[in-house]
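Design a sequence for this backbone.
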Protein backbone atom coordinates (compact mmCIF):
# COMPACT_ATOMS: atom_id res chain seq x y z
CA UNK A 1 0.00 0.00 0.00
CA UNK A 2 1.40 3.39 -0.99
CA UNK A 3 0.65 6.59 0.88
CA UNK A 4 0.32 9.80 -1.16
CA UNK A 5 -0.25 13.48 -0.49
CA UNK A 6 -1.55 15.88 -3.11
CA UNK A 7 -1.64 19.63 -2.58
CA UNK A 8 -3.93 21.61 -4.86
CA UNK A 9 -3.98 25.41 -5.22
CA UNK A 10 -7.25 26.99 -6.31
CA UNK A 11 -7.88 30.67 -7.17
CA UNK A 12 -8.84 32.82 -4.15
CA UNK A 13 -11.72 34.49 -5.99
CA UNK A 14 -13.87 31.33 -6.35
CA UNK A 15 -17.31 31.47 -4.81
CA UNK A 16 -17.81 29.24 -1.79
CA UNK A 17 -20.15 26.86 -3.64
CA UNK A 18 -17.76 26.43 -6.58
CA UNK A 19 -14.88 25.91 -4.16
CA UNK A 20 -16.78 23.21 -2.25
CA UNK A 21 -17.72 21.47 -5.51
CA UNK A 22 -14.10 21.45 -6.67
CA UNK A 23 -12.80 20.09 -3.35
CA UNK A 24 -15.44 17.36 -2.99
CA UNK A 25 -15.19 16.50 -6.69
CA UNK A 26 -11.50 15.64 -6.37
CA UNK A 27 -12.20 13.71 -3.18
CA UNK A 28 -14.95 11.64 -4.84
CA UNK A 29 -12.81 10.91 -7.89
CA UNK A 30 -9.96 9.72 -5.69
CA UNK A 31 -12.20 7.29 -3.84
CA UNK A 32 -14.55 6.11 -6.58
CA UNK A 33 -12.64 6.37 -9.84
CA UNK A 34 -9.07 5.70 -8.76
CA UNK A 35 -9.65 3.35 -5.81
CA UNK A 36 -7.94 5.45 -3.15
CA UNK A 37 -8.62 4.48 0.45
CA UNK A 38 -8.63 6.59 3.58
CA UNK A 39 -8.99 9.89 1.75
CA UNK A 40 -8.65 12.81 4.15
CA UNK A 41 -9.07 16.41 3.09
CA UNK A 42 -7.35 19.26 4.94
CA UNK A 43 -8.39 22.72 3.84
CA UNK A 44 -5.52 25.07 4.56
CA UNK A 45 -7.46 28.10 3.34
CA UNK A 46 -6.11 31.23 1.68
CA UNK A 47 -2.34 31.50 1.80
CA UNK A 48 0.19 33.85 0.24
CA UNK A 49 2.12 32.29 -2.61
CA UNK A 50 5.84 32.64 -3.22
CA UNK A 51 5.24 34.12 -6.67
CA UNK A 52 2.15 35.25 -8.59
CA UNK A 53 0.24 32.65 -10.58
CA UNK A 54 -2.33 33.93 -13.07
CA UNK A 55 -1.86 37.39 -11.51
CA UNK A 56 -2.97 36.10 -8.08
CA UNK A 57 -0.71 36.57 -5.09
CA UNK A 58 -2.87 34.31 -2.90
CA UNK A 59 -4.37 30.89 -3.42
CA UNK A 60 -6.72 28.51 -1.65
CA UNK A 61 -4.73 25.45 -0.58
CA UNK A 62 -6.19 21.96 -0.12
CA UNK A 63 -4.26 18.86 1.01
CA UNK A 64 -5.48 15.36 0.11
CA UNK A 65 -3.95 12.37 1.91
CA UNK A 66 -4.77 8.90 0.62
CA UNK A 67 -3.56 5.31 0.24
CA UNK A 68 -3.65 3.32 -2.97
CA UNK A 69 -2.36 0.06 -4.35
CA UNK A 70 -2.99 0.92 -7.99
CA UNK A 71 -0.07 2.33 -9.95
CA UNK A 72 -2.20 4.54 -12.17
CA UNK A 73 -3.80 6.48 -9.32
CA UNK A 74 -1.39 9.40 -9.33
CA UNK A 75 -1.23 9.73 -13.10
CA UNK A 76 -5.01 9.59 -13.34
CA UNK A 77 -5.57 12.16 -10.62
CA UNK A 78 -2.98 14.51 -12.08
CA UNK A 79 -4.53 14.17 -15.55
CA UNK A 80 -7.92 15.15 -14.10
CA UNK A 81 -6.37 18.11 -12.23
CA UNK A 82 -4.68 19.36 -15.44
CA UNK A 83 -8.06 19.40 -17.19
CA UNK A 84 -9.80 21.26 -14.35
CA UNK A 85 -9.65 24.97 -15.18
CA UNK A 86 -10.06 26.09 -11.57
CA UNK A 87 -6.85 24.31 -10.47
CA UNK A 88 -3.84 26.64 -10.64
CA UNK A 89 -1.15 24.24 -9.40
CA UNK A 90 -0.84 20.80 -7.82
CA UNK A 91 1.88 18.58 -6.43
CA UNK A 92 1.77 14.91 -5.47
CA UNK A 93 4.37 13.18 -3.33
CA UNK A 94 4.71 9.59 -2.17
CA UNK A 95 5.07 9.57 1.60
CA UNK A 96 5.69 5.88 2.34
CA UNK A 97 9.19 6.21 0.87
CA UNK A 98 9.98 8.89 3.43
CA UNK A 99 8.68 6.69 6.25
CA UNK A 100 10.84 3.79 5.09
CA UNK A 101 13.90 6.02 4.82
CA UNK A 102 13.34 7.37 8.33
CA UNK A 103 13.03 3.82 9.71
CA UNK A 104 16.24 2.79 7.95
CA UNK A 105 18.08 5.80 9.36
CA UNK A 106 16.90 4.96 12.89
CA UNK A 107 18.04 1.35 12.48
CA UNK A 108 21.45 2.45 11.20
CA UNK A 109 21.99 4.90 14.05
CA UNK A 110 20.98 2.26 16.60
CA UNK A 111 23.39 -0.20 15.00
CA UNK A 112 26.20 2.39 15.08
CA UNK A 113 25.56 3.19 18.72
CA UNK A 114 25.62 -0.50 19.61
CA UNK A 115 28.82 -0.98 17.62
CA UNK A 116 30.47 2.06 19.24
CA UNK A 117 29.57 0.90 22.75
CA UNK A 118 31.02 -2.59 22.22
CA UNK A 119 34.08 -1.16 20.48
CA UNK A 120 34.70 1.18 23.40
CA UNK A 121 34.74 -1.70 25.88
CA UNK A 122 37.20 -3.81 23.91
CA UNK A 123 39.51 -1.25 22.41
CA UNK A 124 40.22 1.16 25.29
CA UNK A 125 43.70 1.72 26.58
CA UNK A 126 43.98 2.21 30.28
CA UNK A 127 46.85 4.42 31.40
CA UNK A 128 47.26 2.35 34.54
CA UNK A 129 48.31 -0.60 32.45
CA UNK A 130 51.58 1.03 31.38
CA UNK A 131 54.05 -1.30 29.81
CA UNK A 132 57.26 -1.54 31.78
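Sequence:
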Amino acid sequence: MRHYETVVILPPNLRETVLDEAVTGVEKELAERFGARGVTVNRWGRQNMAYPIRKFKEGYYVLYEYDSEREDTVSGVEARLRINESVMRFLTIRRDEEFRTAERMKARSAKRKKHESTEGELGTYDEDMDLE
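The chain has three helices and four strands.
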